[in-house]
Amino acid sequence: MDLQASQSVSQPCCPGRGIDACGANLFCAAFDGRSQPTCYPERSRPDLGECSEDRQCASGECNVRAQRCKSTFGASCRDDVGCSTRQPQRSVCRLGSCDASAGAVGDSCNLPEDCDSHACAGGFCVSASGAAKPETFTAICDEEWVAGDPRELYFHLWADVSFEPGGAGQRGSLRIAWTALESGSKTLDASARVGATTSARGPVATDDKYTVAFDRFVLPAAALHGPKSEIEVTPLTLSGSFTSLAKPFCARLSGTIHKPVERRIGGTPRSVCWFYPTTPGAPLPTFPRASCP
């Protein structure tokens, strides 16, 4: 069949005519099992639809390797296809949906192009050298460490992620290193830190759940609002969800206090800590009074 040039939408076309196969703002292709190529409007192909070039996709971007249109923000996605970088809101494919991501070191990623550094490892954006730099947080904990003293406690916290090969279902590991802040502190200042820094590392699973366990954790008396006696927890476990070094995350607390009196902690809505990215010297944030999601 000898097909004319500049065919209109939905008319059969001849790919051999190249750009002249269809009229303006149309392209010639055979998708979705068609045997006869036809003229499609540009940007008519849906998220995850077949494609061969960017102008065909509603999202503005075709993953040529997968021959599928990348997905728009908030839409369903596939890890091997990814989310479009041509949208106002940058996003990354996480658990089957295009979720917000800034592309900074520590943010979630699936493909190198999800990251400003063009380097993705273990589900996190890393620097060109392959390491996610530690980030500074304010930790606010609401556990009633001392009976009758429900006020929150503050900590200066560092967190980083690494990508050593783990077992099945593991995408990386999270390190938490924190030091208590003196009671009454108003800003995140190194001079307000009291007691020793405690550090531990634990796995981050593919569903973003993490667990970090400290063999021994000591709260110095200077960090407490009430009785001036240090508190020793052996062990202390933090668990919750973690997706990025650039976002707040929370932890459920569990463990056993051995000093000054023995009692269990955890299991209540108030047995939580929230971690907020904070610039050193900035005012301490307020506690959200919310349980971990």
Protein described:
This protein is mainly beta and 293 residues long. It has three domains: 25-99, no CATH class; 101-129, no CATH class; 135-277, Lipocalin. The chain has no helices and 18 strands. The strands form five sheets. Strands 9, 10, 11, 12, 13, 14, 15, 16, 17 and 18 form a ten-stranded antiparallel beta sheet that branches. A two-stranded antiparallel ribbon has the order 1-2. Strand 7 (120-121) and strand 8 form a beta hairpin. The mean pLDDT is 86.
Beta strand %: 35-45%
What percent of the residues sit in helical stretches (DSSP H or I)?
under 10%
User: By helix and strand content, what is the structural category?
Assistant: mainly beta
Give me the CATH fold name of the largest domain.
Lipocalin
How large is the count of helical segments? 0
Instruction: Using the coordinates above, name the CATH class of the largest domain.
Output: Mainly Beta
**Any idea how many domains?**
3
Distance between the termini: 61 Å
Number of E-type strands: 18
Query: What order do the helices and strands follow?
Result: EEEEEEEEEEEEEEEEEE
What is the CATH architecture assignment of the largest domain? Beta Barrel
Tell me, briefly, the overall form: elongated
Instruction: Give a short account of the largest sheet.
Output: 10 strands, antiparallel
Low-confidence stretches: none
On the 0 to 100 scale, the average pLDDT is 86
Rg over CA atoms: 26 Å
